[in-house]
Specification:
Elements lengths: L2 E6 L6 H9 L5 E5 L7 H6 L7 E4 L2 E4 L13 H17 L3 H4 L1 H11 L4 H8 L14
Parallel strand pairs: 1-2
Antiparallel strand pairs: 1-3, 3-4
Organism: Spodoptera littoralis (Egyptian cotton leafworm)
Pfam family, one: GST_C_3
Protein name: GST N-terminal domain-containing protein
């Protein structure tokens, strides 16, 4: 049962999904698109609602949705989503919320150190974005 996740080559809405899939040791195809050349009319036209992320499993195509692995009793999918929101906010806004909110930093570090997630985070390195190049064109 192949799984496929399509999103940009940065964190954001898809990163919590990647974390969950890595943490639950699920194999999936991680398709990444260049954010600086978006929107690509051909790709955009092929997407449900013209938006990312897109998750495919068992012949189903889900948009802005989450895969349904059993995570762990002490964490919910919401914790993974919150972690992704914090990381994306830090990158796009140039802030570090963990410094002002230690409990947030503790949760983010806990998720980033989970088996599978830790190895994934190490393999991709830090995300960066050049906001001057990031110009959305309609």
């Amino acid at each position: 049962m192949p799984k496929k996740l399509s999103y940009f080559n940065l964190n954001g809405l898809a990163e919590p999904i990647r974390y969950i899939l890595h943490y639950t040791n699920q194999e999936f195809e991680d398709v990444r698109y260049d954010v600086y050349s978006w929107p690509d009319p051909k790709i955009k036209a092929s997407l449900p609602y013209g938006q990312f992320p897109v998750y495919e499993e068992d012949g189903r195509v889900l948009t802005k949705a989450w895969p349904s692995p059993n995570v762990v009793p002490t964490l919910s999918w919401g914790d993974f989503v919150f972690c992704g929101v914090i990381e994306a906010s830090d990158m796009f806004l140039g802030i570090e919320l963990s410094k002002d909110y230690p409990a947030v930093g503790t949760l983010v570090q806990h998720i980033r150190n989970l088996p599978g997630v830790k190895e994934y985070v190490k393999s991709i390195g830090p995300y960066t974005i050049d906001l001057a190049r990031f110009k959305y064109k309609k």
